[in-house]
Structures are given as C-alpha cells and as structure tokens.
Specification:
This protein is an alpha+beta fold. The protein has 6 helices and 13 strands.
C-alpha cells in the first residue's frame, strides 16, 4: 500500500473503529462515501447509525450516500493529518464534497478521535493550547477619503470617489483612480441599495483576530454593485444570516443600520434581501 506522510489510506479507515466515539453521535444517522483515487486509493462507505459504526471497503459503483468525498490519496491522507489545508484543496478542486457538507464539518470531527501516525513522537501528547485575547488601544487617522466614508455611515449614506478623468467611481472612496492613476477628490453618494454581483458562502470560519471568537457557519459575504456606482466596482459586506439560503446573484439588497452609530464600520450591520 502506497504511503503518504508516513501512513496510508487503508490505515486511516482501519483505525476508525478504535477512534470512534459512539456517545457523541447517538442521534446521528448518516452514510459517508469516500472515493479515494490514485495509488493507494479505493472506495469506502462509512455508516454511522444511532451510535454504531460500520466501515466497508467496496468495489464497483458508490451506493447512495448522505455525502460523498472525492480526493486523491495524497490529499486525503494529508488532510486527515493536518498536513494539507483542505479548504485550499477544495478551492483547487483536489478535495470535493458532494452532498451535505455539514456532515464533514460538524459530525465527522466529533465522531472520531484524531488519527495519528504509528510511531509519531507526538502520538501520546497534545500541543499545549493557550487561549487568550490581547487588547491594545490604538488610535489612527483615517485621512480625508476614509473619513468621508465613515462619516457617511454615521449618516446612513454611502460615499464614493469619482475620477475626474474617466468618471469611474470607487467605493469605499480611494485617493487615486485605479484606471487612470490620477487623484480623485470628488465625492458622490451611491446606493443605499445594490445588486448582488457575486458572493462567498463560508463554511470554514477562522477565529476573529480581534476577539478570538469563531463565527457561526455558513455565512455569506456579498459583492455588491451599489446603485449609481460603476459596474464592476463592488462593495464587499456581510448578508443577514436569515437570508443565507435564499440569496442569489442578481438579487436586490438593502442596508440594515445599527440604531446607535458612531462613525465606524459597525454602523452598518449587514445587507438583507430587498423583498
């Protein structure tokens, strides 16, 4: 069996029964298919049902599953060991999840203890984890362009700069036109509504560097064409969580403001679908 990072695919699936934590998945009923390609690959079906586990190495077609993972052997082993970032692998098309992705992000991590390579010096140890949030008071000047932007948020307005040469708008305001490379000191008001040009649906959230907290997933970041702005010049901001499963490209959205506004980014809570 071909090895990657000191182990192989068969060892990972073979260790599942001893790593299984039945008390964590008493109410779970899912079937997970793994289609591992390349040298050392194969097909496995993992069934978790009411606190029980069944691991099968199969041949032929994959049976109906709640979710199917497709990856080459090296990516699968590296991702399991934490040697390969699976979010990056997904973006590159090397790790694919077809079905309910929450099974892989929520159920699988709590159903199994972490796989460790036999003989690894760290197999009986855990890294010490210190959880702390450091707060440093800072003051900085926004400058006239971003100052105009934050003042606008306090007044429930969106300001953009408009290039005196080509007429392009930039939102939030920027000092120099990205097309003409000339200074832009002319401000215009855009919005407040906009059209969804694109979006990111985030399933893997990193801790906030300021608070240490991890956001609930999934959440959506919108890229908006604000009314009155140059097409293609997008404002990026969050979507109201209640609209996560309804949002589509081309939809109209409107801003939702904080009742107490101080001239900061928190003055704008999020955008929501403009029904």
């Amino acid at each position: 069996m071909t090895e990657y990072f000191g182990t192989n695919v068969e060892a990972i699936f073979g260790s599942m029964p001893e790593r299984f934590k039945p008390d964590q998945v008493k109410d779970v009923d899912v079937t997970i298919g793994y289609d591992i390609t390349g040298d050392g690959g194969g097909k496995w079906v993992v069934t978790i049902q009411q606190g029980t586990l069944k691991v099968q190495n199969i041949s032929g077609d994959m049976p109906p599953c709640s979710v199917v993972v497709t990856a080459n052997a090296e990516t699968f082993v590296g991702g399991t060991l934490g040697k390969i970032d699976l979010a990056t692998a997904m973006s590159a098309g090397k790790f694919k999840v077809n079905g309910d992705i929450s099974i892989m992000t929520s159920i699988v991590p709590k159903a199994f203890k972490k796989f460790r390579v036999a003989g690894d010096d760290l197999k009986a140890e855990e890294f010490i984890s210190l959880k702390a949030t450091t707060s440093i008071d800072q003051r900085f000047a926004t400058g006239p362009h971003m100052g105009k932007w934050f003042k606008g948020l306090k007044e429930k307005k969106f300001y953009a700069t408009q290039c005196p040469s080509c007429g392009r708008t930039q939102v939030p305001p920027r000092e120099v036109c990205a097309e003409c490379v000339v200074r832009s000191d002319d401000f215009i008001e855009v919005g407040p509504k906009g059209t969804v040009a694109n979006m990111d649906i985030v399933y893997y959230a990193s801790p906030d560097p300021l608070t240490g907290k991890v956001r609930s997933t999934p959440y959506v970041t919108l890229y908006l064409w604000m009314d009155g702005s140059t097409p293609g010049e997008c404002l990026s901001f969050d979507l109201n969580p209640k609209d996560t499963h309804r949002i589509k490209k081309g939809m109209r959205v409107r801003p939702v403001w904080n009742e107490i506004r101080t001239g900061g980014i928190d003055d704008l809570l999020y955008f929501e679908i403009d029904d």
